[in-house]
Amino acid sequence: SDLYNFQKLNLPLDHPARDMQDTFYLDNNLVLRTHCTNMTSRMLTKLASLKTDDNNLAVISYGNVYRRDDDDATHSHQFMQIDGFVVGNKISFANLKWILKYMCQRLFNKDINIRLRPSYFPFTEPSVEVDVSCFKCDSKGCFICKKTGWIWNTRCWND
């Protein structure tokens, strides 16, 4: 819904992500999921309602998301997205790097290295992009990684 895709994530009415050319609106309040971050507000609301001193929470959500993109070799109007967040004391980028590396190793079923590159995203600070070592050539260079040994994988940020 518009509530969880935009309102609870503090995206104002004039935010570009709400534009008709970017989002599939079914009616004024109902949209196809544009990202998996909509689970963040749902889970934080649930955490706030719990009567506990332990306010630690780790959530991974995944699923199909929909955007008004023209389909081509690198874009699709529908794709899978993985989103995660952690709330707790003493959480750092080191924790993020560990969980990303662990996830990639489990996904590819082999030892994978990752690197975090500083990047800019207008909605978060600090932000990084993540590359994974090429699973095909073990980082020696091949057609999949374009002879670099690395595959661009994902974007991450700390807000």
TrEMBL record:
Top-level division of the source organism's lineage: Bacteria
Annotated GO MF terms: ATP binding; phenylalanine-tRNA ligase activity; tRNA binding
Species name: Mycoplasma capricolum
UniProt entry keywords in alphabetical sequence: Aminoacyl-tRNA synthetase, ATP-binding, Ligase, Nucleotide-binding, Protein biosynthesis
Keyword ATP-binding: yes
PANTHER family assigned: PHENYLALANINE--TRNA LIGASE, MITOCHONDRIAL, PHENYLALANYL-TRNA SYNTHETASE
CC annotations in GO: cytoplasm
Tagged with keyword Nucleotide-binding: yes
InterPro entries: aa-tRNA-synth_II/BPL/LPL (IPR045864), Phenylalanyl-tRNA_Synthase (IPR002319)
Coiled coil (UniProt feature): none
One example of a Gene Ontology biological process annotation: phenylalanyl-tRNA aminoacylation
Name the UniProt record assigns to this protein: Phe-tRNA synthetase
Domain Phenylalanyl-tRNA synthetase intervals: 2-151
